[in-house]
Design brief:
Number of helices: 18
Distance between the termini: 84 Å
Order of helices and strands: HHHEEHEHHHEHHHHHHHHHEEEEHHEEEE
Helix content: 40-55%
Radius of gyration: 24 Å
Number of strands: 12
Strand order of the largest sheet: 1-2-8-5-3
């Protein structure tokens, strides 16, 4: 009898959930279409099997540029293709400017910092960040000098292998990360510094953990946070990262000179001191911790991963590598590469852009949230709906790029071989939430890439026939670690 009662209760509960689920799906007239949603789980089962952005790309082929999916009981609107994504992020920037409240990120930053911040906090921290990065050289020759110095350290590391096979992952991560570290802290860190190595390990492990199934389940059903899983490992890493950050800015606070801003942290602490009488000030320690975490992560992962892809593309297509080196020899010679050289180097500039497009390092823009009810491209989207701009669909839009599934620098060259911009080049997202460090990333990529190709020819180790383009698991699309050879080009570099 008890067994029958349990069965009846279970069945009744199932149908109640199914009814509520159906009602939620139909309560908004003219909501974007989407695949059949199962009770309680929605479309979670499909995403778990295929992965999120792969699932969304497939669904866009069926449902068009604006459609919906359901994760658990939450409805999500997906925007795909250049026209629709531009319409959402640029033409409807105000309606879609808010950051979605994703449980694992909410627990991490609590709405503070910049990447996952909300409302006025985001606006104030973004203005401060862009202004301060400019003060510390973003887009200026002073920052080029820092990048050039870091290039010399990276090149020396690669030279030490004397043309023998090595994995460049840690070297490139260290070099790229050191640029943002030097801005934030006021000094670079040695590649072998245990603290620096631990910092990079925390960042790279969390990138991997973000796509673990237990994290997906936690974001869908936050109550599952009480169970063991990758979401708890992620938070442990964040706590370690925050502890490192707090130690660094406490040190800066002790040595703070109000008349001498040596670093981003100094600039924040000086602003904090100026606003100490304002109880509503956003310049408090918790915001600083989240802000630095955001900048460390953003200033390390995507640029270093893209640079690794650049070298792999040059190895896979040696005729392109040779053409880049010819352009370097003609325009730069033995001089230190500068960002301004790109204006005279259309092919090299096109190769960098095409690598960014083809490698598709960040296939989805961080999710947005509608700030109010909005009619978008014929559909009604209620306030508070999560929005996913599917950037991979823009970078692979057949209307914008020739044969988007192939690596082709001609996507950024005209018939006369001159560099041409493409409005669909949205690797940094678009609109009000466009990457605050876009100019920094562009400068780093060009200078690091040309400096490396100036000094080395890259190739596969003896006996290895093919470049491995397999993706490693992670929130960003990185290549698997693999050994390559860096052969010095000039006799004096040998």
């Amino acid at each position: 009898m008890e067994v029958i009662s349990v069965i009846l209760v279970t069945v009744a509960t199932f149908y109640i959930i199914h009814y509520l689920n159906t009602w939620m799906n139909k309560k908004h007239n003219n909501f974007p279409p989407g695949p059949l949603k199962l009770p309680l789980i929605g479309n979670l089962h499909t995403v778990v099997v295929k992965g999120l952005h792969q699932t969304l790309m497939e669904l866009s082929e069926t449902y068009g540029p604006v459609f919906s999916i359901q994760m658990g009981m939450k409805n999500i609107v997906v925007v795909a293709g250049y026209d629709a994504v531009k319409d959402a992020l640029v033409n409807h920037a105000e309606e879609f400017e808010e950051r979605a409240r994703v449980p694992i990120f909410e627990k991490m930053d609590k709405g503070l910092g910049i990447a996952f911040a909300h409302g006025d906090n985001w606006k104030i921290m973004r203005r401060f960040t862009i202004s301060t990065l400019r003060d510390f050289g973003m887009g200026k020759s002073s920052l080029e000098e820092r990048i050039a110095e870091e290039c010399s350290h990276m090149i020396q590391q690669m030279k030490s292998f004397k043309g023998q096979p090595f994995d460049n992952t840690r070297i490139i991560y260290s070099a790229v990360s050191n640029i943002i570290v030097s801005i934030l802290l006021g000094n670079r860190m040695d590649y072998e510094d245990p603290q620096f190595k631990k910092l990079l390990d925390l960042i790279t492990e969390n990138i991997r953990l973000l796509v673990e199934k237990t994290v997906l389940l936690y974001n869908t059903y936050p109550i599952l946070g009480i169970l063991p899983g990758s979401h708890r490992r992620f938070q442990k890493n964040i706590n370690e990262l925050f502890a490192f950050i707090q130690c660094t800015f406490v040190k800066h606070l002790k040595e703070l000179d109000m008349n001498d801003q040596r670093s981003f942290i100094d600039a924040f602490l000086i602003r904090q001191n100026l606003e100490k009488a304002n109880p509503q000030s956003y310049f408090h320690n918790e915001n600083l911790t989240s802000l630095i975490r955001s900048l460390l992560n953003a200033g390390t992962e995507t640029t270093s991963t893209t640079l690794r892809w650049c070298l792999l593309m040059m190895i896979k297509y040696p005729h392109y590598q040779e053409k880049v080196q010819e352009e370097i020899s003609k325009v730069i010679g033995m001089a230190q590469p500068k960002y301004s050289h790109r204006l005279q180097m259309p092919f090299t500039n096109a190769v960098v852009h095409e690598t960014q497009r083809f490698s598709n390092v960040a296939p989805m823009s961080l999710p947005r949230e509608s700030t109010r009810d909005v009619n978008f491209r014929g559909y009604h989207i209620p306030k508070g709906t999560q929005i996913i701009p599917l950037l991979t669909s823009v970078l692979n839009d057949k209307k914008q790029f020739k044969a988007p599934g192939e690596f082709n620098p001609n996507n950024f060259l005209d018939s006369e071989g001159q560099f041409v911009k493409n409005e669909a080049f949205m690797v940094f997202s678009a609109g009000r939430r466009v990457c605050a460090g876009e100019n920094l990333a562009r400068m780093e990529l060009f200078i690091f890439f040309t400096s490396l190709l100036q000094k080395f020819t890259f190739c596969l180790p003896p006996g290895v026939k093919e470049v491995d383009l397999t993706l490693s698991a992670g929130f960003t699309q990185a290549p698997l670690p693999q050994k390559i050879c860096a052969i010095p080009r000039l006799q004096e570099d040998a």
